[in-house]
Structures are given as C-alpha cells and as structure tokens.
C-alpha cells in the first residue's frame, strides 16, 4: 500500500563533475550518501516503441566510519514510471520497498546484488552520470510490479500486467520465471515489454507525472478508505498501489 511519509532528514544532492550526482552528510561519525537514477521502461507496440521514465533519489548510510556496516535497506523516494500507450492505456512500473534491490540488480558490485555495503556505497558514489544498467527480471528482486487500470474510473480495477514466480534452487541470478504475461490481453496484440533500464543522472527527482494518469479519486478510494475496503480487495491491492514513496523536497 502507499508508503507513509518519510520522517527525518533527506540529504540534498549536489553535482560532482564527471561522477555520479552524490551528496554526503556526516553526523556523529555517520556518513550518509545519496544519488539519483532514472528508470526507463520500453514497450513494443504495433505503433512503435513507447517509453516512460521517472527520476528517483536513493541514499544509504555508512555508520561510524567508512569501514563500518552500511545501512540497510537504502532509502528510495520518487514515483512510479508511467508509459502512455495512447488509446491502449497506461502501463505503470511501481516504486516499492524493494526499489533499492532493483538498483543493486542493475548495478551489481563484484558480480553480486548486495550493494548495501561500504564497498557498494563507494562504488555508486563514483559512477559517472550517464552510466546505465539493464534490470535483469530473473535475478532478485526481479522486475517492479507492472500494473494498469482496466477502468480509469475505478481505482480498484488495478491489475498486474505480468506475473513472476520465485523458483527455489535455481542458479543464482535465474530465480524468477515469467508465469503469466497479460500484456497483449490488457493492451492488445503485439504489445510486449522490451526492457527496463536504470541510468545515473543529475536530473531532479520527478514528481506529479504519475498523477496525470491515475484515477482522480485514487487516493480517496484506495488510501484514505483502505480500512473500509473488503478483506479480499485489500489482499489483492496491497502490492499494487504504491505509486509514490516519500515526499517532494
């Protein structure tokens, strides 16, 4: 469900020439770093490739000294990606509490995905603006939830565009399998997800783009009246309504 307002200090970003846009703040020996990345979703359609993107801010903390354990999980704020497919509808790639793991997936450190380490934090702090990584849907945590609304007048009509299943015992990095692909069912013949790419950027965090496509009464129906929804509706919607995380700064 929609994440609560993030409490505490969110470190503002500063531009560092030729490297990732990183801010670093030191309080009582703790070093907090943050950077921005753009997620771009590409969809194949009979009308051509359609794309949507959103810039998010991510940060983590080195506690006590640069050699200490990094904070985990990292903090990610921003909004979902909206891909406008015209008369076919809108595909959303949601933001969630696993968005930091998606970043580690796209930018692995030493062949692994556990980026919340001192080595990982320093690695990201030195990534150049424009550095790209392709999200591997089969590696943990897989793709973000991809959803659409069958009826934009009904917020509860949100539905998954793809269903992935975690398979235990698979080779590392090959743990997820696509079990149901509803893209053509929801958007029409010839519509397929092409790729999801992350890119280090110095652009500002995007806010409000997703609002242009959500049902007007979305928050009222799903968020404010969450407790009033039926148990079955809550169980179905709980992982499909996180279109924003954090607050604009």
Task: Explain this structure.
With 249 residues, the protein is an alpha+beta fold. The chain has five helices and 13 strands. Strands 1, 2, 3, 4, 7, 12 and 13 form a seven-stranded antiparallel sheet that branches. The protein has a four-stranded antiparallel sheet with strand order 5-6-8-9, with no helix packed on it. Strand 5 (81-84) and strand 6 form a beta hairpin. The two termini are 22 Å apart. Mean pLDDT is 82; it is low at 1-20.
Features:
249 residues, alpha+beta, seven-stranded antiparallel sheet, 33% strand, disordered N terminus
Please, what is the average pLDDT?
A: 82
Helix content: 10-25%
Secondary-structure element series: EEEEEEHHEEEEEHEHHE
- Biggest β-sheet: count, sense, barrel? 7 strands, antiparallel
Low-confidence runs (pLDDT<50, min 5 residues)? Answer: 1-20
**Beta-strand residue fraction:** 25-35%
The oligomeric state of the chains shown is single chain
Distance between the termini: 22 Å
How many strand elements?
A: 13
- Class by alpha and beta content: alpha+beta
Coarse morphology: globular
Radius of gyration, taken over Cα atoms and rounded to an integer in Å = 18 Å
Number of helices: 5
Question: Concise description?
Answer:
This protein is an alpha+beta fold and 249 residues long. It is 14% helix and 33% strand.
């Amino acid at each position: 469900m929609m994440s609560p307002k993030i409490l505490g200090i969110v470190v503002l970003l500063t531009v560092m020439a030729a490297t990732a846009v990183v801010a670093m703040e030191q309080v009582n020996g703790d070093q907090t770093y943050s950077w921005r990345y753009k997620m771009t979703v590409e969809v194949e359609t009979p009308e051509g490739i359609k794309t949507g993107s959103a810039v998010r801010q991510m940060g983590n903390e080195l506690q006590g000294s640069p050699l200490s354990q990094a904070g985990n999980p990292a903090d990610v704020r921003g909004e979902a990606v909206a891909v406008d497919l015209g008369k076919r509808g809108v595909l959303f790639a949601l933001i969630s509490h696993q968005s930091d793991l998606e970043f580690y997936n796209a930018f692995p450190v030493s062949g692994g995905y556990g980026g919340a380490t001192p080595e990982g934090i320093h690695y990201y702090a030195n990534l150049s603006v424009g550095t790209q990584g392709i999200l591997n849907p089969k590696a943990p945590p897989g793709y973000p939830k991809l959803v659409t609304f069958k009826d934009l007048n009904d917020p509860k009509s949100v539905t998954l565009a793809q269903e992935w299943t975690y398979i235990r015992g698979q080779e590392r990095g090959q743990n997820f399998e696509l079990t149901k692909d509803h893209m053509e069912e929801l958007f029409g013949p010839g519509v397929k997800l092409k790729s999801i790419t992350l890119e280090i950027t110095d652009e500002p965090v995007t806010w409000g783009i997703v609002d242009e496509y959500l049902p007007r009464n979305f928050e009222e129906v799903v968020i404010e009246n969450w407790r009033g929804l039926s148990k079955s509706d809550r169980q179905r919607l709980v992982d499909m309504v996180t279109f924003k995380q954090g607050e604009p700064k």
